[in-house]
Amino acid sequence: MSRSRKKLSARGSRRPAPRNPKQRKTPETPRVPGAETARKGSRGERRKHLDERLRLLYQRAVLIEDELRKLDQDRFYRVCIFGSARIKPDTKQYGDVFELARYLSWEGVDVLTGGGPGLMEAANKGARLGREEKKTKNLSYGLTIQLEFEPEPNKHLDIKRHHHKFSSRLDDFIRLSNSVVCTPGGIGTLLEFFFVWQLIQVKHATPRPIVLLEKKFWEGILDWMRREPLSRGLVGEKDFSIIHVVDTPAEAFDIISAHHQEFRDRRGKIVEEPA
């Protein structure tokens, strides 16, 4: 056997030495100031460290929220439309939401939805058509989230943002909208309705119209709210002042349009004020 073959044979017979599990490299994690001390310290020290970290994160979140609000405040008017992903295009509810979004687009109002199928698709689709018809500059927004029954966002979005959690998605719905329309839906739509209503009640969100489209669907919920929570003093009569129950897209549009005009008047005064 030649020398070169012996070398190849020797190389081929060599097996890599087994790795010692203790020698495996672990990915480095970002170092947090004081974290090592906190881990080694007493339980009280660890609690104090966690409290400090949470306080700093909260302050950072508040600063970011303020900056985002300043960038967008009083520049654009948007309507957030909530509704079921399960309602099909051949239904009256789908047609009503489509027409409402179309009317809003004629007036140059942005339309914001969850970006999914069903009534969300109806709103985004109507917004696109209305813009084409009247040559306005409004946009169709979708705040999407990954769900088994909503694998892809609808195809009528100009701007979309994906969320991994419902909580951050709900916060964006509030931050980006000036008024809200709730159409028939399930648990998700009811959650969105009560979330907006509650934030306005505790003044964590600016007052805005909440329009409930289709009286037959919504009046039972409001009757119960008056019969139980209101009669027991758990909510106030004034909490109902921002709720508008309507039956047609035209009625919903009239309420939103009036609020939009107030927004434009207020914005005009701000622009006219001397620097």
Chain-wise SSE layout:
Elements lengths: L2 H11 L21 H6 L2 H30 L5 E5 L9 H15 L3 E4 L5 H16 L5 E6 L13 E5 L2 H11 L2 E4 L4 H15 L8 E4 L1 H16 L12 E4 L2 H24 L3
Parallel strand pairs: 1-2, 1-5, 2-3, 3-4, 5-6, 6-7
Helix pairs in contact: 4-5, 4-9
Commentary on this structure:
With 275 residues, the chain is of the alpha/beta class. It has a domain at 79-264: Rossmann fold (3-Layer(aba) Sandwich). It contains nine helices and seven strands. The chain has helices at residues 3-13, 35-40, 43-72, 92-106, 119-134, 166-176, 187-201, 215-230, 249-272; strands at 78-82, 110-113, 140-145, 159-163, 179-182, 210-213, 243-246. The protein has a seven-stranded parallel β-sheet, sandwiched between helices. Strand 5 (179-182), helix 7 (187-201) and strand 6 (210-213) form a beta-alpha-beta unit. Helix 4 runs parallel beside helix 5 (119-134) and helix 4 packs parallel to helix 9. The longest helix is centred in the N-terminal third of the chain and has 30 residues, at 43-72. The protein is globular, with a radius of gyration of 27 Å. The N and C termini lie far apart (94 Å). Mean pLDDT is 84; it is low at 6-10 and 271-275.
